[in-house]
Specification:
Length: 303
């Protein structure tokens, strides 16, 4: 093991220890600690703070500067809080996760066992809590925990730890780069496949589609997969409960008349859905991501 590998291994072990310690705290205490640390992060200069402000300026140009900064500060409090809560999510028991992440199944998900469907997620701050609770729920319904697409972390040791934590209730984590051959088969078999396509993954298999009026490089995979498999699209969103009451995972009714007239129209419909969910509480969206990193030709860089 060279020095670089040793550093990665030690960093992963330190990270695991921190999350284990957070898991020993009562949930509400860990969540409050995370929110306090997020408030501190807002007071310090950082690249992510500027990314949040840039994203909010791009998507909500009519907001006042003061209101934009107020929401940005809440974003950082929610994001850091969600990381503090991952100790409970990655080390906690199934019973503990059920206690703090509620299910609101408006779709009647059990009826889709064996029926092609895609569970369409989005990057709200509760995405980790929702994905783990959904894997538990899918296992309870006999789906076997389902499948989630993910992007591996740079530190392979920490990535292996997180992957194992996410799979411990029966889910399978599939790297996005390795899904070409098996994904269609899984969807056709009616396995619960979770896809969250609301990030900038580059120009491959993407189109520039408006997101709050700004061109955003957006994956078209959901429309294409639905056309190839006949899959129903079932949106899932995870929202914070007030007063540190955990989260609620809402499984919404499947979309009607989807796919539509074109892949572009379908992808615009998807982004419109994301917008509708975000405006309910903009601070809960994962604005720390460089959503407009890839720009159309001739457009200036934002970050």
């Amino acid at each position: 093991m060279n020095l670089s590998e040793l550093g990665a291994w030690l960093g992963a072990r330190l990270g695991m220890a921190v999350f284990w310690l957070l898991a020993q705290l009562p949930y509400c205490l860990a969540a409050r600690l995370g929110a306090r640390l997020g408030g501190l992060a807002w007071r310090l200069p950082s690249v992510r703070k500027q990314v949040v402000l840039t994203n909010l300026q791009t998507c909500f140009p009519d907001w006042t500067r003061g209101y934009r900064r107020q929401i940005a500060g809440q974003v950082l409090r929610y994001v850091v809080r969600s990381f503090a809560e991952r100790g409970m999510l990655w080390f906690g028991s199934a019973a503990r996760i059920r206690r703090w992440v509620w299910i609101d199944d408006q779709a009647g998900l059990a009826q889709f066992k064996g029926v092609p469907h895609i569970l369409l997620g989005m990057h709200l701050v509760g995405i980790e809590a929702g994905a783990l609770r959904l894997s538990l729920y899918l296992d309870e319904l006999g789906f076997g925990g389902g499948v989630t697409l993910y992007t591996p972390m740079r530190n392979r040791y920490f990535d292996a730890f997180v992957k194992n934590a996410r799979e411990r209730f029966g889910a399978r984590m599939l790297p996005r780069a390795q899904i070409a051959h098996g994904l269609l088969r899984l969807i056709r078999q009616g396995v619960g496949v979770q896809i969250s396509p609301d990030m900038d993954f580059g120009v491959n298999n993407s189109e520039f589609v408006d997101f709050f009026g700004a061109p955003a490089c957006t994956l078209t995979a959901v429309s294409r997969l639905a056309r190839l498999t006949g899959a129903k699209i079932i949106p899932v969103v995870t929202e914070l409960c007030p007063h540190y009451g955990g989260y609620v995972l809402r499984i919404l009714p499947p979309w009607l008349d989807y796919p539509g007239e074109s892949v572009m129209a379908d992808t615009r419909r998807m982004n419109t859905f994301f917008e509708t969910q975000i405006v309910r509480d903009p601070a809960q969206y994962y604005w720390v991501h460089r959503r407009f990193k890839t720009r159309p030709k001739g457009f200036p860089r934002l970050y």
